[in-house]
């Protein structure tokens, strides 16, 4: 096995498409180290659950389309018994946070200006056009808002979302131009880093806006910044050892708090990083998909999901919606957690869902 490769699971358990992407990454002369998390599955240029350290190169494809996607979590202090009626809460959240392809009825006025470092005016205009319509919106796919409770019956709120269409446009623009890693010193490398930085901030602003809306719906005051756990799992960071790329991987520096969700039935795990340098101070960003979205829709029935989701308020399954996000579409979270607990992170809390919103 290549000495630059670090695996948290047996290589035979990695799906062939993801393995091909791993092998392609190992052929890059600028690759210093590649760590594979236990939720690995195929993505675009780099598999989801991949962490790549490059020497003086930045790789837009190793960050992907949803630049800055991540999670925010706050432990509210509210007891489960103090929660409002869950159906009414679901409706309140639905009114406050647009989901799926829905955007804001009135454009946001507090979006930080974006001017692409590429000097491509059409990219600047398109990014801003979408940003003002999508700040504080959830999106679709595996993005979610979850109200859960821990063993002490304390309520926690988790928001998973990213930079929405704006980040997709930036990612797509640079991935088309680069077709692989480019030197940090190049015009494209410098421009990508600057535009990526804007997307990271927009993604955080987007999550925070939704998180505060959730707290308002619960009748709680806004959370203070220091009480909010935030982690970004799609990014590139310049470090003293090289350029660190995480593609669907949670940062796990020593002492750093993180969030690992399972699926819409099994909740989220709160973790504390152990700073494992061998695995690039990273952990999984979820359970990882077991079935493709197409396969999930073909193999999983609405009745299966309804049975598994008893006791949890969640969106309607009308027309087969959400079957691709069913619990059975994901790997077993217990196995994924076991492969990193005490090695990459320590698990410090778990919140089981009582309400889930998805697009």
Give a verbal description of the structure:
With 359 residues, this protein is of the alpha+beta class. The protein has one domain (5-290, 330-358): tRNA-splicing ligase RtcB (Alpha-Beta Complex). Helices cover 28% and strands 27% of the residues. A seven-stranded antiparallel β-sheet has the order 9-5-7-6-16-14-13. It has a five-stranded mixed β-sheet with strand order 1-2-3-11-10. Strand 6 (144-149) and strand 7 (154-161) form a beta hairpin. Helix 2 crosses helix 5 (187-217) and helix 4 (164-178) runs antiparallel to helix 5 (187-217). The longest helix has 31 residues, at 187-217. The model has no long low-confidence stretch (mean pLDDT 96).
* Overall radius of gyration: 20 Å
Strand order of the largest sheet: 9-5-7-6-16-14-13
CATH architectural category? Alpha-Beta Complex
What is the number of domains?
1
Percentage of residues in strands: 25-35%
Number of helices: 8
Give the end-to-end Cα distance, rounded to a whole number of Å: 41 Å
What form results from the Cα inertia axes? Answer: globular
Helix fraction bin: 25-40%
CATH fold assignment: tRNA-splicing ligase RtcB
Structural class determined from secondary elements: alpha+beta
What is the CATH homologous superfamily assignment?
Answer: tRNA-splicing ligase RtcB
Beta strands, count: 16
Biggest sheet statistics: 7 strands, antiparallel
